[in-house]
Each structure stands twice: as C-alpha cells, then as structure tokens.
C-alpha cells in the first residue's frame, strides 16, 4: 500500500483524491499555486506545498516543481488527477524515474493511447470496432481515393499530428474532397510540421458512450458504461449511467470490447474507452481511450458501488484487482451535472468571483463533489468547474426527479452558475425521453436561450 | 495620457500565440477598436480592444501575468 501521496492537481478532483487517500490511511500532500493558497484541497491535505505563480504552466504543469515537492515531503507516489499532466507520458516516466509511483498507467501506455493512429490500430487489433477510415496515415490522394470506397460521404480529414479539433475538414462530395485533401495536407504541414493525414467516416447522429475499465497490468474488468451525449463545444455537461440506448446484448458487447483493449495493452489503473454509438445502425465505434480518472467517474461509482479512486490507489500500491467481473452489477440510474462558474444567459461567459453564500443539497441519493466553501474566491486562472452534482435513483425518471429536487436545494451566492441550464434540461421532454445525440444540445441552446436566465 | 484597462480578471497575453509577434509593440500607434492583447479567463480567451486612440502605446502589464479587472494594461499618448 502507498504511504504518502502527492496530489498533482487542484479543485474538486484534488479534494476527491485526498478523501480516497485518507479513507485508505495514506498521508496526503497538496500542491498549490499562489492563487490557490486558500483552496479547500490545501486545507484538507495533511501538508501543502506552494509550487509557483498562478499560470498553470508555472505551477500545476511544472513537472520539476511537482517532483521536488514530492521528494521534499517524502512522498512515495503521485496522483495526477485529470487535465494538467494526467495524460503526459513524459511526466509518468519522470515520476517513475524519480523512484516514485505514478498513480496511472506507464508512460508507454499513455503514449500509445495518445497517438490517434496507434490507438486506432491497437483497438482494431483487439477486435474493437473502429470508425471506417484509414488504417494509418494517408500520404497520397491515390491512397485516399481507395479509402473513400469504404467510408463514403461525408468524410472527415484530420491531421495525424493535430488535436483538440484543430486541422479537421469535412467533405460531403468527391469534388469537395479533391479540393480539401491537398489543402488539409498543406495546412497540417504548416501547423504541425507533419503533412500526415487520416480519414474517417462522419457518423451523423451519434451518442457518446464510454466504458469505465480498471486494470492491474495483468487483468482488466469493466464497470459498465456512461452516456455523455449532452455536450456544448465538445465539453460534456451532463453524464449518466447506464445508457438508455443500449440493449443488454449491446451493453455486454460494448463493455467486453473495452476489456479486450485494456487487456491487449496490459492496462494498469482506471481508464475510459470512448465510443460513438450510432442509434440508427445500432453500431458502436471506438474513438479513443483516456488514460486517467475522468470528471464523470462518480456516476459509475453510484451505480456500481465501487470507489474508483480508491481502487486506483490500491492498484498503484501493487495490489492485484480485488474486484471480479461477476461482482460488478448495475444498480439503478445515476446522473451527474457539471456546475460551472459561467453565465448561461450570456452565452456561458466565465464568471469568477467570491462565494458569498452556499447551500449544498443532500439527502438520499445525492452527492456533491466540490471545492466550494462560503467566502471562497474562485480564481480566473483555471477551468470553470465548481462542483459536480451526482444523483442516484432506482430508475432514470427517479434520478431526474431527484436532480430537480437537489438543484432546487442548491444555492451558490456571489456568482453565476450553470444551474439554470440543468433545471431547464431536466424539464425538457427530449431529455426526459433520453432521445439525444452529441450535437443535440447546441441546437437546443440556440432555441432555448430565454429559459436560461436566473 | 489615457489608460487601457483590463475588462476582466485573468491572465494577460500580448500576442495571439506564443510564436506570434505581439499585437502591439511599445511605441506603436493605436486606434479605437484595435486589439492590444488577450485576457484568458477560465480557459476562455477574450480580446482586449482599445477604447482610446494615440500615437504611442506603452505596456505596463507583462505578458502572461495575472491581472485584476480594472488593472491598467497600457498607457497611450
């Protein structure tokens, strides 16, 4: 078992990890930027180290400062949380090279899954369905024409070295493709110094469904799926488990495919295999694997009763997987909403400020993961996530009713939050039916802006 | 002399990307509506446009430094 853990993160996830570590009797060391000296994670950890100025680059992304803090405080391990350095292969390597345990997969596993082409090949080799497209890089228009026979239109052209939505073009016809391909190549070369492209069929209306996996390097299990189709600008805002779109058969197939991939790469720690699910064709396609704990992990914890962060710490401490696949079962339905410091009535403008007053919801089936306290000054330097409200009920209908009840109890004074968005969504018949896809929310937002004042 | 103030709290950037030249260099002329920098607030970027005109701008806030809302970013003659 680990003895002393450095939490290389901030905000609600740092608080979450400190809680799991304390439950297991592991000593905790928080790190913080100058702007976070008063943050809740600093108050809750056994020790805290100032690692630099507010800018993430100079503090939470400063690997050297983090490793020094871990050494100086006598830590034997580092948990990266999500974001920041969580999926930075060199950081995982550097932690290991310093003689510490990285709570997550090896640098090589992060590198493999971080390379889109390599990850896709690994998935295909493990028998996971991938979106029809190029098996690897496409370097010539002749090659590209061959692949079009498989993908059809519309087709997406992506820069192999791109990321975060950059360097993506969509062609609807052959004529558009013939024009876009050389442009995309020139653009990729200019932007990334690498003209390699790859191609993928565009799946029109798809749900985002992802499978939680846990591995110990030898064996892997799944903890069923989460559906995160409600997204704004590719950011998830509402996540739930299980997905109402899947039949039992599809659920078992989907989850089994995630386990095959995790096993094939000898995965260690908590990870998530993400898929697009095409309702009309009843088919799922691998998108990517995230090699970290995810923001929305609590919905899985709610329906399975597994403490995923505690399991990560046990695995990192050298224990084999304690949970057998047959012991993982779905109980009820859970929904998480992300409470952000944003004003939904003003196109989600960021809204940093001071928490004047706080009423946290509670009662049966309600969990509130957050770093808020009355008087807390929300800094402008980091992302806008303030809290995650997770509700659990016997059915999806009961979970939605509980969500409305809990949101009504919740009061955050002093700044604007996305609470009005979730009250409006919970009251929407399409959301109640669960008849959504990844681009549904943006359309709904453009038509329902008036409902978001509050 | 007039001042250009930060409309938001956050991190001030003088160029659109680390490898790009600054929007304005010290000594440049500015017109009303010219972009003089960006403020990053909670990972979203907002352009700072000058509300004043002048023949000589001098920056008083440094690149990539935290600023408060209302803090002076530059002076304009």
UniProtKB/TrEMBL annotation, chain A:
Family matches, as InterPro entries: ACC_Biotin_Carboxylase, ATP-grasp, BC-like_N, Biotin_carboxylation_dom, Biotin_COase_C, CPAse_ATP-bd, PreATP-grasp_dom_sf, Rudment_hybrid_motif
Gene3D superfamilies membership: ATP-grasp fold, B domain
tRNA-binding is among the record's keywords: no
Substrates-to-products reaction catalysed: N(6)-biotinyl-L-lysyl-[protein] + hydrogencarbonate + ATP = N(6)-carboxybiotinyl-L-lysyl-[protein] + ADP + phosphate + H(+)
Alphabetic keyword roster: ATP-binding, Biotin, Ligase, Nucleotide-binding
EC top class, as a word: ligase
Signal sequence coordinates: none
Keyword Ligase: yes
Short name of any one Pfam family annotated for the protein: Biotin_carb_C
Example of a GO MF term: biotin carboxylase activity
Residue ranges of domain ATP-grasp in the record: 120-317
Ranges for domain Biotin carboxylation: 1-446
EC number: 6.3.4.14
Database matches in PANTHER family: BIOTIN CARBOXYLASE, CHLOROPLASTIC, PYRUVATE CARBOXYLASE SUBUNIT A
General function of this protein: This protein is a component of the acetyl coenzyme A carboxylase complex; first, biotin carboxylase catalyzes the carboxylation of the carrier protein and then the transcarboxylase transfers the carboxyl group to form malonyl-CoA.
Name of the featured protein: biotin carboxylase
Organism listed in the record: Mesorhizobium denitrificans
Automatic annotation (TrEMBL), chain B:
InterPro entries per record: AcCoA_biotinCC, Biotin_lipoyl, Single_hybrid_motif
Domain of life of the native organism: Bacteria
GO BP, sorted A to Z: fatty acid biosynthetic process
Keyword Lipid metabolism carried by entry: yes
Pfam families, alphabetized: Biotin_lipoyl (PF00364)
PROSITE patterns: BIOTINYL_LIPOYL
UniProt entry keywords in alphabetical sequence: Biotin, Fatty acid biosynthesis, Fatty acid metabolism, Lipid biosynthesis, Lipid metabolism
Species this chain originates from: Mesorhizobium denitrificans
GO MF annotation list: acetyl-CoA carboxylase activity
Protein name (record): Biotin carboxyl carrier protein of acetyl-CoA carboxylase
SUPFAM superfamilies: Single hybrid motif
General function of this protein: This protein is a component of the acetyl coenzyme A carboxylase complex; first, biotin carboxylase catalyzes the carboxylation of the carrier protein and then the transcarboxylase transfers the carboxyl group to form malonyl-CoA.
Domain (Lipoyl-binding) ranges: 1-77
Cross-referenced NCBIfam families: PRK07051.1
GO cellular component term of the entry, any: acetyl-CoA carboxylase complex
Pathway(s) the chain acts in: Lipid metabolism; fatty acid biosynthesis
